[in-house]
Fold:
Amino acid sequence: MPGNKPSNKHLGKPARQLLFSEALRQNRAPPSTTQEHLTNQLSDMADASQSATMDRILQEKSAVSRRLEGMDSRMISLTEETKSMRLDIASFQSRVATLEQRVTTVETQATLAADRDQELLYLQSKVIDLEDRSRRDNVRFLGFPEEIDGAEEQSFLKNILPQLTGLTFDPPGVPKST
Structure:
């Protein structure tokens, strides 16, 4: 019981006297004088209420301490997660920067390739046109002897072409020679 022990706060004070109800429970006689008895009762009540208040405060303090310990461990894990996320973000930033450089390079190359394609189409059409023009100016005769040279070519063609085509190659106004 709280009234049986001397209080730690009041070292050097004598042990407090028992209340009448406490004395009855312990089969002791109540304090001798009424005035003394009332004073003891008030001091016991104050000590008891202070003791109960102190007990409640200590209990709440220990509960708060347990909660704070739990919060400390959560804060540590949150701090570690934050550091990990910062490292991940830094990694992602460098990767994004690299990808942006690559995309810029690819876009530049795509633009150059499109320009080259346009130039290539133009050059192809020009080659086709030049080939067609060169073919129009040339007549190819197949199956004629290759050993004919110079003036012989003209006389050979003047003789053979009218036979093959039925056309004459005399200039207009010049009588036909027989």
